[in-house]
Amino acid sequence: MTAPSRSGSTTDPTKPSDHPSHSEQHWTPRLWGSLVVLCAAMFLDALDVSMVGVALPSIGTDLNLSTSTLQWVVSGYVLGYGGLLLLGGRAADLLGRRRVFLVALGVFAAASLLGGLVDDGGLLIGARFLKGVSAAFTAPAGLSIITTTFPEGPARNRALSIYTTCGASGFSLGLVLSGLLTSAGWRWTFLMPVPVALLALVFAFRLLPRQAREERTAGGYDVAGAITGTLAVLLLVFTVTEAQGAGWLSLRTLGSLLAVVVLAAAFLLIELRTAHPLVRLGIFRNGGVARANLIALTLMGSYAGFQFIATLYLQRLLGWSALEMAFGLLPAGALVALSATRMGAIVDRFGTARLLPAGVLSLALGYAGFLRLDEHSGYLTLVLPSMILLGVGFALAFPSVNIAATDGVADEEQGLASGLVNSAFQIGGAIVLAVVTAVITAGSGGGESAQAQLDGYRPALWLVTAVALAGFAVAAAGVLADRRKRSIPVSVADYDYPSAQQAAPAGSEVLTKR
């Protein structure tokens, strides 16, 4: 039998700070404060990713870094973040979400300070890797604190919508801030987050709900699973990042991919046999969770590829400055930010199963619209329409995929579910970006002329659009599954925990069929 979902779990009414039964209309100031702190950490993570990208040319010139070394300023962060997310999510479940969040946020502040002070490329990459590691623990811990503090239904949907919107807004704002800060010196892109992170740490210590020791997940530690799983993800991210330079069919790349397969197979075998697995594979029997992770792969993968193409096109071919490009892409982020207060109500009304295909399709249309690019494309005719479609798509899909990825998951596995969806985002972005880079290089033939560049960008855009359409197909399958589920007559005797139905918010589906 499957364990009951969050909505069916038993809570202690004497501990409103841990599992508040607040309705959407009666959030206390402390509850709002906790959410703001968690949003601040998500905002900083997203801000950091986008700010560094715009500052790379200045970093390379100041520290005398080659192009291959410079890419590791970005890849180092992705390696630490994507490689350790599963471990970070499980650590939150086992060691306590609040504790893990506080320690990781402190490490993030220290690594940011280090990155802004170093004068050596190797140390800078090390600081970026350390920031990625810290984000791998703050992201799943923060998301699981929300999903265990706010009950399933309108309250959680609203909280997750605000939380995920802060991430998207941070990414968009980072593009603009980076242009302004880099003009004063690239080091400010690293130093600016330090006081914000420290302030968030102080308020987090005071406001975040404490997790009772007896409520933490019981059981041992899956050391073998942690080692093989983490190494598999780390090696996968490293391999796809380096494949462009080494060659996709080189002995080095093929050997690394084979090692990834061996490690992944060993990890799965360990998880199937251990009593306390790092990743309980049965979590994927929840169709909504499985589909959400696949959609997350395509969602971030397609956007990472598109942003890379758009950056090269606007700056290299059209001659835009970094700040002009940042403002040009801003409408997409602005739409996401403006939708924050309404997305919870929209999810309650339509459900994630309907919003996900609509959102992913809007993204695919935005990418496809950019295929009209040429040597003299105008902002109003090419860029702005795509930005509007991307903004609508992310506003609908990004909160929905996070809600779907944690819906119906028991409290003791919320960290795991959060780590899985965040891993999907990072791995999808790394893999698709690496393939897009290879396609651009092959299409342009290494030429610098406008036509050669366009010959590289167009097939890469087709690839990005195809990835988004694959996500749409998965989301559409979710609509069909949702309709079939609703058409099946419901009998209380068919479910494992009948009492959970009475505890669940109206309209939620929390029982697991036998």
Automatic annotation (TrEMBL):
UniProt keyword annotations, A-Z: Antibiotic resistance, Cell membrane, Membrane, Transmembrane, Transmembrane helix, Transport
Comp. bias intervals (Polar residues): 1-14
Annotated region (Disordered), positions in chain: 1-26
Residues covered by the Major facilitator superfamily (MFS) profile domain: 34-483
Pfam families linked: MFS_1
UniProt superkingdom: Bacteria
Record's protein name: MFS transporter
Source species: Kitasatospora herbaricolor
